[in-house]
Fold Type IV pilus assembly protein PilM.
Amino acid sequence: MALDLGLLFGRKNTPLVGIDISASSVRLVELSQVTERTKTAVAEFRLERFATEPLPRGAVVDGNIENIEQVTEVVRRLWKKSGASTKNVALGMPSASVITKKIILPGGMTDDELEMQVESEANQYIPFALDEVSLDFDVIGPALQSPEDVEVLLAATRKEKVEDRVAVAEGAGLKPIVMDIESYAARGAIDRLIAQLPKAGKGKIIGLFQLGAQNTHISVLLDDQLIYEREQAFGGQQLTQDIVRAYGLSFDEAEAKKRSGDLPENYQKEILAPFLENAALEVTRAIQFFFTSTPYTRVDQLFLAGGCAIIPGMVEAVAGRAKVSTSVISPFAGMKLAPNVREKQLRADAPSYLVACGLAMRRFG
């Protein structure tokens, strides 16, 4: 393999924290497991700690780390602030940076034979030389159509993109154990929440909209399976830019006032309302794309996550436009909380921790 850290799929039960490096901030989550998953019950977790630190503007752009020194310093500060004791971390790669492909291979091969076969197959799907990529795979299980074969998930990304994140973690004195794909980490967190729905959400088509600073990632799920995925260039920074233009503030000032609500009286009507309407249009446009590019004609439930999801009025705007039951989700719903966890802060920020929570869950497989 090109880079062996247990990366992209990783090992189970190593103590670790999840660290999500997004366009606007870095978030950390550490979980412990109270009970394990059984056939009749989902695993129970306890939130031990969570923390966030803002990133300087331009340090991360479109998922690429543009300033390793700045991001490293933020991660170092975040880890110290969190009080985490383990230095083992799970990191995420932006979905757009990773090529994934499910392939069918003969069963009964040794690990070495399987690795050689995966590398051979990878040449068909990866538009780069293999020595330029970090490549990993995970055996999903017997193939549905031919149980004597196995279904394997292949994942590959440019080596320098992995190395940038590894350099940030190591520069902050941490040890990267797992490199997951951000959308997979988010789905790991969302599976818990779907399991809490009536009949565990069976037969329900669920749209997950992760509304970030720069982009919105859309995943549509049915019975534990991803049936559609897309990314749109829309996020909360557009509202910040609107505030900059309207009131002559710097970007950082506008971002701070957006969070505190310390803005002129006309903000709600003239700036926020048009932004919310635009956000709702983006969501309904994404749903239409889903309908036109798949056999499906309905969505039963919308889940909103990400920092943009907690903007006042977002749920109402999306539900009103999409005509679909809509809610903002917390990845920590139903979890026990450690004594040091600040509940008020958690309630306000929880939807932005979906990826970090999913990364932290990688400790438990």
User: Anything to note?
Assistant: Confidence is low (pLDDT under 50) at residues 1-11. Residues 267-293 form the longest helix (27 residues). The chain has three domains: 12-95+161-197+340-362, 97-159, 217-328.
